[in-house]
Design brief:
The protein has 247 residues and is an alpha/beta fold. The chain is 17% helix and 26% strand. α4 (106-114) links the parallel β5 (92-94) and β6. The longest helix has 15 residues, at 67-81.
């Protein structure tokens, strides 16, 4: 991303500082709220139509969110998610450690821990088709970096559980749409792990709930890169579920 250039600012009012930049050679504008304003629309990123946007562009949008907005957005996402019946009933909850500007589930994990729920993190297992298993997680346990530099709990194979043994899996994503389609990082690990989730008729464990920022919402229609669809997607602005999918 190139250097940001201020376009306008009116201190002391509910105004915005418009920052012009380029992503992948395309022009865009970030509207960042003045520190004294409400954060409801603290970050709005205007970009070209989805067919011109790749994963890196969306990741750049995600990284551009200010620390203050990010903290507020995490609070809002947490508030929505912990009220879900699926969360309230869950005993085993898998989440992840946020990297690269991902929406951070740490507040959700902390709340679940206070309620006595078991927290798990994904562990990448080298098989013919790499997939994820899940290790019990506590904040004081030893961690190791996997081949992508992401921290995982140090656990032996006998201690790992399968996706079907989780009640909820909170997943990261790069992009999503209102039809609950998800675009991940492109490695296919979540997709291969939850392939069984695609065509089942009756609900079985786990419930797949993605968390994201609203600025990651895109048009995935006719995009072959989409992964296994989610059961729900929670952002700082909305809860997307099968009940409100537009037909």
């Amino acid at each position: 991303m190139s250097a940001l250039v201020a376009e306008s600012l009116m201190p002391g009012r509910q105004s915005h500082l418009n920052l012009r930049f380029k992503v992948d050679g395309r022009n865009g504008i970030v509207d960042v709220a003045h520190p004294n304003t409400v954060f409801n629309q603290a970050l709005v990123l205007r970009l070209p139509p989805m067919q011109q946007i790749n994963r890196q562009t969306i990741r750049n949008k995600r990284r551009a969110i200010s620390p203050e907005c990010r903290q507020l957005f995490h609070t809002r996402v947490t508030s929505r998610l912990i009220k879900l019946p699926a969360f309230i009933k869950a005993r085993r909850i898998a989440a992840y450690l946020a990297v690269d500007g991902e929406c951070d589930p740490q507040m959700i994990m902390d709340h679940a821990n206070r309620l006595g729920k078991e927290i798990y993190l994904p562990v990448l297992v080298a098989t013919r088709r790499p997939k994820l298993l899940f290790a019990r997680y506590t904040q004081d346990m030893p961690m190791l970096k996997n081949r992508f530099g992401i921290l995982e709990p140090q656990a032996n194979r006998a201690q790992l559980l399968t996706a079907r043994e989780m009640d909820i899996v909170i997943t990261p994503l790069v992009g999503f749409d209102e039809q609950l389609n998800r675009i991940g990082m492109g490695g296919g690990f979540y997709d291969s792990t939850f392939a069984f989730h695609r065509n089942r008729v009756h609900w079985k464990h786990p419930r797949l709930i993605a968390i994201a920022y609203e600025c990651q919402k895109i048009d995935i229609k006719n995009n072959n890169n989409r992964d296994v669809p989610m059961d729900m997607i929670v952002t700082e602005q909305a809860l997307y579920s099968k009940k409100n999918i537009k037909k």
